[in-house]
Amino acid sequence: MFERSAASSGGSAAHTLVLGCLEAGIEAAHPRRAVERHCSVDAETLTIGDATYDLSAHGTILVLGGGKAADELAAAFERMLGDRVTDGTVVTNERTADPDRIDVSIGEHPAPGDGSVSGAQAVLDRAATADDRTLVIAAVAGGGSALLCAPAAGLSVDDLRGVSTGLLDAGASIEELNVVRRACSSIKGGGLAAAAAPATVVGVLVSDVVGDDPAVIASGPTVPTGVDPEAALEVLDRYGLDVPAVRSHLADLAPSDPAAVAVDNHVITSGRDAVDAARAHAADRGYRTCVLSTRIEGEAAPAGRVHAAIGAEAADSGDPVEPPAVVLSSGETTVHVTGDGIGGPNQEFALAAAAELPDGVVLGAVDTDGGDGSTDAAGALVDGGTVDDPEVARAALADNDSYPLLDSADALLRTGATGTNVNDLRVLVVPA
Fold first, then answer.
1. Residue 296, CA distances (Å) to 36, 68, 320, 347 in order
2. Hey, what's the torsion of the CAs at 213, 217, 221, 225, to 10 degrees?
3. How many whole angstroms from its chain centre is CA 231?
4. Enclosing domain of residue 366
5. Number of compact structural domains in the chain
6. Of 202, 236, 269, which residue sits at a domain end?
7. Which of 137, 150, 394, 415 is most deeply buried (CB count within 10 A of its CB)?
8. What is the pLDDT of residues 217-246, one digit of tens each?
């Protein structure tokens, strides 16, 4: 899976174990695997999780949605349901699957663009044709907030791109981003489900958010949540964003209650699946394991330093786990961009950790979708020898310029688009 640099491919057994754990985690969280685990068809009964749906009651089955794994979800359901699927359309940023009956549109990420708008409109248009005998399988995955962009009346894609980029660069949380996004969109906050009414709408979700709240994943296109313009304005004020068109829209917007539509939502895979698979891979190879948390958020560089400190503690005292050990975590760190360099959260996490890792301890940190920030790297694989001069590392972090330094050390990990997106995954190996 990984394009292994000279440094990573020729490293120690600990380097090899980190890569194996990362690969196992990404593979376990792939939508194809998740559909195989949680969904099945028996005669005319579709089972998703604990719920069942009578296929004979539906004359039309549509697959609609968006996100970085939406095309893989769509292809998995098409394989399972065969010619029962009428058609559909999903939006992703980099196609990795090729369903026959379901159209795949290409949008932009992490900020929305024209493709995101045209793709979202195609999804809404097809949803509007549904009737009470239609079953809509809503394939929703992380990244859908940017990829399903349907600007509210009076707003443009440039307006939404500006506010999204501003909040991302300011280090806003996904919850804060979504408060604003829902108030500025006709597809988020249950907009897709409302467009498909009176169809039976079943959301099948790949979670890339801490806590796996369906209302937060892709800003909840299948979760009626209502709109709170005052809360959205508070977010803009908190980060000092100068976005006149969006502020004007929010000032004129009345609060709304959730749309009265019934939807079943099923989260079929998340960062927990990736961590569990990585842990099993390590345990099978005789390592003790410790899962710190699947809910780690906040600034990437401080989180990386904490992980380095945990590695040093384990090596020195055997706490929180006796070596040989693998320490794992997941979640979604952010970067408050103040410099003009190149990098991403996992690269900043890894570079900050590398400056403080003890000898022999190895750390890998990746975005499971294969794209960390706006770079071509998924993340990085580092050890105590990656950084010769901690001051150089600190200067790179201050300029948000982790990519060049890690690249020069042959520490970047590249996968290309993986077809999934379930948070960041971090693997810390402490040898005996």
1. 28, 21, 17, 16
2. 40
3. 24
4. 6-28+272-430
5. 2
6. 269
7. 137
8. 999 999 999 899 999 999 999 999 999 999
